[in-house]
Here is the input.
Amino acid sequence: MAEYLAERGQVGDHQIVVLTDQATGRRVRIARRGATLMSFEVPTPQGLRNIADGYRDAGELDTRPSSRFAIMVPFANRIADARYVFDGEPHDLQPGVEGAARAARHGFVRGVDFDIADLVADAQDARVTFTTQAIRPGVHPGYPFAIDLAVTYVLDESGLTLEANMRNVGKHAAPCFFGWHPYFRLSDTSIDSWELQIPAGGIVRTDEQYIPVAGEHAHVAIDSVPELDFRRMQPIGARELNHAFTDLRLDTDGRARTRLRDPESGIGIAMWQVTGVMLAFTADTVTRDVRRSVALEPMESWADAFNRPDCADTIRLEPGAERRYTCGVEIESA
Here is the structure.
């Protein structure tokens, strides 16, 4: 019998996929809608614990509160005033919208029903690949580019890996990058007592709208903001975090690991990535369960990257080119 299972399921009207590690009892549920992870169960001495603070039901998959576990493509986080310039051409993501209602966040695929291109399991892992061709000229105002997107989840003995593949199938270069928006709830205790470690040498300075300030002033060395220095694992305490951490230190295997641990339950995870920035958010402004989980968001580039010359090389995708971004969650203790 295979140690892993990959099965289809249903949540209301939404089709989902269930990946199971039969040896450890770990199980993830992922919806076609947005290729969105809904739950990640891990065994603990007290029984199975869902460490993913994701959407709870079909209704939340439809309304997408707080963008929980959102796949963010072709941009992550915010674009200032929903406008950008690429290759000298101005683009407006919200034509006709004025004032405070203007907002562009987290890309275009959160509400898309992806196709299931592959669903397999064997003795080594269980995996699923979701694909979509929803990003096309004329579909999304202000984005006249064509991107094919594939998102693969792999459950194996180390934890869960996510790989995104973005391919420019249009005739012109396109701005495009990846981000993921997970929320983790390690226990029902206050996040103030949870411990956090981020191997970062700097942070991004932003304005009140969480848009990075212009130029070099956005780059801040972590030594100059000791209250945000999490290079040593320490309790979160009362601090409110909504910050992108930069200059991530890689371990010897080429992965930068941001660690979150609840010392009372003993549950700990490492969110790993190979490039980019880590945005840590203590869920102070969410629509439900304020400060009951922590979002650890690996992003290939910065918020408002479409408007930043210092991010131009990272986000540029030439015609016919593809780029992969890989990150994942390791279970370190339970």
Notes: The first helix runs from residue 58 to 63.
